[in-house]
Amino acid sequence: MPELPIDSWPELFRWLLYSFYLFTLVGTILIVVLDNRNPVKTISWVMVLIFLPYLGLLLYIFLGQRYRKKKIISKKSIRSIENNPAYLYEELDPALYPENCESLIELLRRNNTHPVFSGNEVRLFTNGKETFDALFEDIRNARKHIHLDYYIIESGRIGHQLQALLIEKAKSGVEVRLVYDDMGSWHTKKRFFQEMKDAGVQVYPFLKVLLPYLSPKFNYRNHRKIVVIDGEIGYTGGLNVADRYLGKGKFKVWRDTHVRIEGKGVYGLQTAFLIDWFFVSRQLLTSKFYFPDLSEKGKSLVQIATSGPDTDWENILQAFFSIIGKAKRYIYLQTPYFLPSESLLTALQTAALSGVDVRLMVPARTDTPLTAQAMRSHFSEVMDAGVKVYLYKKGFLHAKTLVADDIISTVGSTNFDYRSFELDFEVNAFMYDASFAHLMKETFHNDMKDCRLIDPAVWNKRPRVVKWTESVCRLFGPLM
To answer: What is the pLDDT confidence band of residue 79, given thresholds at 50, 70 and 90?
Structure first.
C-alpha cells in the first residue's frame, strides 16, 4: 500500500472522525426509535441528535437513557427483600377496604407488592421545627436500630444535631444505617459523613458519581425521605436535612409536610429502605429483628408506595392518575413543581370539567426560576377547564400532598413533575382514613389564607414576552 502524502493525514483524520460520528449518530437514533417511547419524546431526541452535533450525543448519554428497562436495582434484589417477615403477616381482608378505595389499593399492591395495613396512628407535621423535634426525640429513644434514607443532608446546624445524635446512638450499641444521595448531598463535605463512619454509623452514598453532571446516571436520584426507628416508627414526606427547612435561608417560611407513622404501615417504609440499603451495601437484611410484631396503634389504613427506575411501572404516577380519575367531589393538590405529563394534565382537566372541585396550590416563588417559568405555562390549560390555582405567598411551599373526597390522602417525596414520576426514586404514604383526610383538607384550607387565587381573565392578559418565555422554558420540563 503506497504511503499517503503527509498533507492528506489531516483530511483522513477528519474523514474518520466524521464517519465515526455518523455511525454513532445513526446507531443512537435507531436505539431511540426502537425503544418505543412516547412518539413526542422520540422525535424530540432525534431532533436534538441531528441539530446539535456532538452535544446531542452527550446529552443523550447523560440524560436520555432509560434505566427503568435496565433496572438500576435488579428485580432479584428487590424480591429478596420483599420476601421478608413483613409479608408473612395476614393481609387485610379486601372486604374491609374503604368504599371507593378498592381499585387504588389493588393497583399499588400489584405494582409494589406492598399491602395495606390497618391499625396505624399517623401524625401530620406542617413545619420543620415540629418535625425535627419529634424525629430527634424518637431517635433518642431508639433501642435497636435507626435507618435513614435522605436525598439531601447538609452539614448545617440541623445536620450537625442529627450527626451528634446518630454518633451517640451508634456508640451506645444501636445499629445505625444511613443512605444519602450522592448528587443531592454533593455540597456536603465528605468529612461530615466520615466522622459518622468513624463512630460506628454505617453510611453509604446512593449512585455515587465522581463528577456531578458527568455520569450517565446522575439524572437518576434517590429523592426519598425515610426514617425507620426500631421497626416501629416511621417518617416520610418532603423534608430533607437542611437548615432551610427551619426558615434559615432564602425563604423565611419553608412550608412543608411530613408524616410520622406508628403501626404496621412501617413495614412498607422498612422494606423500601432495605431495598436501597442492599443496593448500596450489598448487605441483605430480612431478619424479623427489623420487622417486629406490632399491635394496633390507631385507626388509619396505610399503604407505602415506591417508584423509580427500579420499578416496572410508574407506580406513583399511576396512583395519582387513579385518584384523580375516580374523584367525585374534590381534589386538593399541593406541589412545589407543577410540570405534569400529558396523561395527568388530561386527568385534571377531565375531573374539573366533570364538576369535581379541583384545586392546585403551588409557590408564588420557587427556588429555581427556570422551573417557575415552565410551571406557569400550564396554568391556563388547567384553569380553562375549571381548576382553581392558588399561589402560596407566605414563603416557599415545598409540600407534596394530595387529598380527595374525604377518604384518600397521600404525603411523600413525589413532586407533580416529570422528574419525580419518571426518573427519581420516590416514596409516598397513602392513607385511607376519613379523619386524616379531613385534617389534610383543613390544612389545605388554612394554607389558602396565605395564597392568591389566580383570576384566569387577568392571567391571560400577561405580556406576550412573558408567555413566550414560559413556553420556551416548558420545553426543558422533562430535564428539570
So the answer is: low
129: CATH: 3.30.870.10
Q: Are 418 and 341 in contact (CB under 8 A)?
A: yes
Q: Among 400, 417, 433, 447, which one carries the catalytic annotation?
A: 400
Is 225 a residue of the active site?
A: yes
398 catalytic per annotation: yes
* Integer Cα distance of 394 and 409 in angstroms: 24
41 noted as active-site residue: no
| Residue 96 lies in domain | 70-304
Per-residue confidence (pLDDT) for residue 371, from 0 to 100: 84
Please list the alpha-helical segments (H only) found in 2-127. 9-34, 39-51, 55-59, 67-70, 75-82, 102-112
Q: Is 109 helix (H, G, I), strand (E, B) or coil?
A: helix
- Strand ranges (DSSP E) for 347-457? 357-363, 388-392, 396-397, 401-404, 408-412, 416-417, 426-432, 451-453
Q: How many residues in total does the chain contain?
A: 480
405 included as an active-site residue = yes
Q: Give the pLDDT band of residue 25 (cuts 50, 70, 90).
A: low
CB 425 within 8 A of CB 118: no
- Indicate if 417 belongs to the active site: no
Q: Whole-angstrom Cα distance, residue 396 to residue 391? A: 10
Q: Examine the domain organization and report whether 178 and 202 are in the same domain.
A: yes
Please indicate whether residue 400 or residue 21 has the higher confidence score (pLDDT).
400
Q: Which residue has the cell 445536620?
A: 159
Inter-residue contact 335 to 416 (CB < 8 Å): yes
What's the predicted TM-score (pTM) here? 0.86
Q: Is 160 a catalytic residue?
A: no
CA–CA separation, 345 vs 421, rounded Å?
A: 13
Buried b / exposed e across 134-166, counting CB within 10 Å, b at 16+?
A: bbeebbeebeebbbbbbbbbbbbebbeebbebb
Residues 262, 183 share a domain: yes
In a domain? residue 1: no
- pLDDT per residue over 342-369, tens digit each? 899 999 999 999 999 999 999 999 888 8
Distance CA 299, CA 244 (A): 34
